[in-house]
Automatic annotation (TrEMBL):
InterPro entries attached to this UniProt entry: HNH, HNH_nuc, NA-targeting_endonuclease
Cited SMART domains: HNHc (SM00507)
Domain HNH nuclease, residue spans: 68-126
Protein name as catalogued: HNH nuclease domain-containing protein
Taxonomic lineage: Bacteria, Bacillati, Actinomycetota, Actinomycetes, Catenulisporales
Length: 144
């Protein structure tokens, strides 16, 4: 099962449009999360304190993506802004977090998850703001 999950992730991770749809679907659940529920069952059978997870009702707190996630997104998006295709390879340090945009903004119920991240240049990230849900379905060719 773990190997199958790895293979599905490998295929899906390349498709930003599919990931955007997945994250829009999941955002519907996040937006229903309420601070009234103090605890909820976690995966490990423990409890999850929603006050630690939520900034406010239906909105998760921002968490910086870990370096492995930034590397994976940078590699998938081939070092270019997905909106304007500006080459960021010479401009962007992987340590910089500001160019890793949430396709579905946290304010719209988006997740702090690698499947919700994309690479944007400063200008496009500023224009997108936290009200816009967007990605590009244009992909760079692997050839030519
Ligand atoms: Zn751009």
């Amino acid at each position: 099962m773990e190997r199958l999950a790895d293979e599905v992730f490998y295929i899906m991770f390349l498709n930003r449009s599919a990931l955007l749809n997945l994250n829009l679907y999941l955002a519907g659940y996040v937006q229903q999360l309420s601070l009234d529920f103090e605890t909820e069952d976690g995966d490990d059978g423990g409890t999850v304190d929603l006050h630690k997870l939520l900034k406010r009702e239906g909105v998760l707190r921002r968490k910086s993506p870990p370096e492995w996630a930034r590397r994976a997104v940078f590699f998938r998006d081939r070092g270019c802004c997905v909106a304007c295709h500006r080459d960021l390879t010479g401009l962007l340090s992987l340590l910089s977090k500001k160019n890793f945009d949430h396709m579905v903004p946290l304010a719209q119920g988006g997740l702090n998850d690698i499947t919700n991240l994309q690479l944007l240049c400063d200008k496009c990230n500023l224009e997108k703001s936290d009200k816009t849900v967007a990605t590009s379905s244009q992909y760079q060719l692997w050839y030519g």
